[in-house]
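task queued by scheduler; priority normal; single chain, no ligands, no partner chains; default sampling; output format set to C-alpha cells
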Amino acid sequence: MTFWALLILILLLSALVAYLGDRVAKWAGKRHYRLLGLRPRQTATLVAVFTGVGIALFSYLGFLLVFREARETILEAEAVRQERDRLKEEREALLRAKEALEAESARALAEVTALREDRKELARALGEAEALRRRLEAEVAAWKGKGKGLRPSWGKGKGPWGRRKGSSGKGAKP
C-alpha cells in the first residue's frame, strides 16, 4: 500500500470509530446509564473519551498491520537508537583520527619541504666542491709537470730545512 492509500484508510477508520463512539455516547446519555456510579452526562463524556482512545489505538494498529517495515522499526526503536549512538561515537573517533592524520601529514609535508631545501643546498655545495676538486687536480697536475726536471734545492747530506741529517739543529753548521 502506498502512503496516501494508508492515510485515507486511517482517516476512514478514525471517522467510523468516532461516529460509532458518538452514537454510543448519545445512546448512553439518552438511556441515563450510570457507569461506575457517575451521572449520565459524565458517563457519556467517559464513553466519548474511550472512543478517542479507541480511535488512536485502531489507527496505530492499522498502521502497524499494513506497513511491516514500520512495525519492525517501531518495535526495534531501542536497538536503532543504540546503533545510532554507537555510529555517532565511531564517527567522532574517526573525525579525531582524521584530524590527527591531517596534522601528521602537514608536519611530514613541512619536513619534506625542509629536506628538499637541504638537498638543494647540499647539491649546490657538492657542485662547488667538485669544481674546487677539479681545479685543484688541474693545479696539482700542472705543478707535477713543472717539477719533473727539477732537483731538490738542498745539498748532499742536508734535509729539506737546511740542516744536516741527524743533528738537532743546535750549534750545527750549515
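post-processing summary
- DSSP finds four helices and no strands in the chain.
- The mean pLDDT is 80.
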